[in-house]
Model the fold of this input.
Amino acid sequence: MSDVTLYDYFRSSAGYRVRIALNLKRVAHDRVEISLVQGEQRRAEHLARNPQGLVPALALSDGTVLTQSLAMLDWLDSTRPEPRLFPSDPLARAQAMAQALVIVADIHPIDNLRVLQRLESQFGADAGAKADWYRHWIALGLDALEANAPTDGFFGGAAPGVVDCCLVPQLYNARRFELDLSPWPKLVAIDARAARLPAFAAAHPDRVADRVAPAA
Done:
């Protein structure tokens, strides 16, 4: 029996973060696909889970539903301390949170699907303009992350942590939008190291796309 049910979309970077964390923590979970391209996130049954109409949503065994990926990672770390995603030292935790928020708060929200759709519907942006927008904001964030990235291991040290859980999905998105990643070699190296870990490999969109359970 699964401990939790994750409602997400296979290409959602926010959902991808949570899939990685669940795997790292070895949390038994079910996964239900919410197709963003088909608008399933706006259906009544999903709005009952998350009134924002976003993914992911994490349903707990007692019926509680968590939203916002970083809150889910924090909950996982609080209820299942090992392996740690956030450092236990308060200063190190704040620094890790700051790096994670570069992605979660600065890059992701303005590159989200609903923003790209608004650029098209309100301002007439075509596919090329939307891709340029997407790449611009990713590049700014990656510049900051590269400046603080370690030369070996992970942001989390010898083992991946919260920043790594956020970074890998963001680089996946960057490649989807054909962003040249050569200016950020330390980030690319971290991504390559993470790809060799089963928890990251199993969470990859290509691995979950063929075994999704569609929403009822």
About this structure: The domain at 4-83+201-214 is CATH 3.40.30.10 (Glutaredoxin). The two ends are 20 Å apart (CA to CA).
